[in-house]
Structure formats: structure tokens, C-alpha cells
Amino acid sequence: MSTASFCVLSGPGLKGGLQGTHCEFSVEMPSREVQPGGGSELSMHIRGPSKAVISSRPNANGYIVDYFPSEAGEYILTVLCDNDHVPNSPFTVQVEPNPDYKPVGNHLKCSATGPGLKTGSVGKPCLFSVDVKDAGQGKLALALTGPSKTSLTRSDSSSGYEYQFVPKAAGDYTLRITFSDNDIPGSPFHIRISGSKRESNQHLQSFNSNHEEGGAGVQIGVGSGGDPSKCKAFGDGLYHSIALKPTMFYVDCHEAGGGGKLYIRMTGPSKTDLVEVEKGHGFQYTTKAPGNYELVLLFNSEHIPGSPYGVLVDEDPNHQGSYSFPEKVKIHGAGIKGGRRGTRCAFFVDLADAGAGTLSVEIQGPDEAPIQLGKHDNGQTVVSYTPPTRGEYVISVKFSNQDVLGSPFKASVQ
């Protein structure tokens, strides 16, 4: 029979206690096990809403165990002797709220590390850890905000906690970590999340000084060849702007050597007007709506240092009304009027001047006609459907939950 089976535990701490107070219980062991040089090892750990510090001190018959829960709730207390559970272990203990408890602790003793505090990608786990082992008693709180609603998951570690989150949208996120209501060192953390997918409610506006087909660039005449790593971009416009306000940034490629082409494009929740205001050097853009945008700077088809940039566009405090303009949506193409059964019908939706919003298309008729949305080379949205049955169909096109001009449309299928 194991030594653990001979241990006797007693005391109120086995059932719980009060938040922010020391909860105690005793562990009585056979006398031979507590003599100097005795052979048994007692170990304990506790898991629950907070990182409850647990410790023990010897007495005449064994040990007095003390733990300090800083949060109310249910905890799981495990007591082992020589790696075997003592009788009734693990214990479920209930810690009651204490309205008079005020957390104490040193937030400066906390630290957060990990790649998930700086960058990440859409749909992939972002990982980081928080070390609180030297901070004393206190409440650890985390708040993550950004373009998408994202949940944090937590697991225990030897020094604190391991966290992860999976962002659903690209852009800039802010993570605030506090201990005893104070920001830990480095908080708030600013996290750049990148993504390769462009949502259906985004638009692409490119700058093309010489109107080259498929291109969006201006050529910098500094010789032949060129090294993208020698290009430099600077200016507040690389990081921040205000909707409807012209914003500047600058690109210097003179040290790149040789002549290359600088391509600039900006994607985000609305159309962006991008113009060159200083030949091959200064650029100005104006967004139509607030949100998170991506600014890409390519030299000879390669990113220059820092690209792509995440640009946070704030609302204009002086702007009255919405940033969405359904009345400026333009629709054209034969498919909006109908077609032939069993064949693909298509029409185009031009959102260039519509501002920020979400496009939705619904088709009702004598039979179900699956809808597909795609992007044309000209940046417009292509809507296609294949009606299986003859008859009259009704096509509803909405932008930001409002009918666009002419919607609903009647389509006749022969």
C-alpha cells in the first residue's frame, strides 16, 4: 500500500474559503515520514479562476498547507504524496466572493512574451505567455480589440499562463494586459495581423502614372536594375489617417541604384483616391471611410522594407452622416435582365463610389438559382447565377442593407 493512503487531511481549506484570504488545511503523515531524512515527498497544486499561490510548512504531525485565491469561484486542489493521490484527492473547493478584498501586487513584476504580441496571420493561432510568478497577489485581466471579435484561450504554465487567439480578419489589434488594474510592462500591445484574402466589401484603388495594363506604378528613373532593400518610406500616412482627409507619405528610392518601378496599392473598407503630388517621391491618398487598410509598396515587384503597412483610418469628427452611399452603386450587364435557363447569367456591380459597406445579393424565383460573387480585372464585382427553370426572377441588390438604385430588378429567364 502506498504512503499516500496513510495521509489524513483535515481543515476548512479542503472545502473552500473567502476570496483574498488565506485558506488552510493540514496533512497528517506517519511519524516516520516527517523525521529528518524521511523518504516521502508532499506536493500540491491548485487550478481555478486565479493563480492561487500555494505553500506548506511542517508541523509536529506533517504539514500545514496554505493557499491564497485572489478570485472567487470553483478551484481544483490536488495533493500528492510520492506522486500518488492522497485519499479524496483531487478536491473541489469553492471560494466565495469577498466585497472587502482589494487585490495587491506589483504589476511591474509581470511580463508578457511571444510572437503573438507583435504579428500574426488570419486564421492561424497567435501565441503568447504571461509570467506572474513574482508579482504577488492580484487580478490578471486581458482585453483584445480589433477588426474581428476574437476569443482568448488560456492554459496554465509553471510561471503563469499560456494564451492563444485566432484572428478572423486582417488589421491592427490592441491587447491590453493589466495586473491589479495596472498595465503590465509593454501594455497595451499593438498586433499587426495580415491576410491574403480580400473581403467582398473591400475595394482596390491603385496608382498608375503611365496607365500600363495590369500595372499600378510609377517608374523612378535612376538607372537600370535596383535594390528594393535600399528604398525608404516615411511619413505619418504609412500608419494613420482620417477618413475624407488627404494624407501624405513619401518614398525615397534614389539609393536603390538602377532604375526600377515603384508600384503602390491600397486596400480597405472603401475606395481610396491615390495621387502623386511630388514626382516619384511624394504621394497623397484620401479614404472614403474609417477602418483598417493595407498599403503595399513594391519596387521591381518586391516589397520595400516595412511593406505592407497597416493603416488605421479614424472617423472624421466633423463628418455628419454615414460613410456608406448605396445610391452611388452602379449595376450593368445582361444578366440583371435575365437569360436562358441552364446557362450562366452575369452582371457587374461597381462599388467604386459607394464608400464602406457590405454587398448582398438575393434571387427569388420559380426555382433556386445559386449565386456566385467574384472580382473582375477592372475591380468590379461580378455576380453570376444559373437559373434551372424558366420564369420570372426577382434580383435584390443591397449595399449596407439598403436597396441600390433600381433594386429589386425583374429578370426574365427563357
Oligomer: single chain
Silhouette? elongated
Our estimate of the beta-strand percent is over 45%
Cα gyration radius (Å): 31 Å
Number of helical segments with 4 or more residues: 0
Structural class: mainly beta
Largest sheet: 7 strands, mixed
Number of beta strands: 38
Uncertain segments are 32-38, 196-224
Helix content: under 10%
Mean pLDDT: 81
Distance between the termini: 86 Å
Question: Could you explain the architecture of this structure?
Answer:
The protein is mainly β and 414 residues long. The protein has no helices and 38 strands. The strands form 8 sheets. Strands 19, 20, 22, 24, 27, 28 and 29 form a 7-stranded mixed β-sheet that branches. The radius of gyration is 31 Å and the shape is elongated. The model is unreliable at 32-38 and 196-224 (pLDDT under 50).
Would you kindly provide a brief summary of this structure?
The chain is mostly beta strands. The protein has strands at 8-10, 16-18, 23-28, 42-47, 53-58, 62-68, 73-81, 84-85, 91-96, 111-113, 119-121, 126-131, 140-145, 153-156, 160-165, 171-179, 182-183, 189-194, 203-206, 217-220, 232-234, 240-242, 247-252, 260-268, 272-278, 282-287, 291-299, 302-303, 309-314, 330-332, 338-339, 345-350, 359-364, 371-375, 381-385, 391-399, 402-403, 409-413. Strand 14 and strand 15 (160-165) form a beta hairpin.
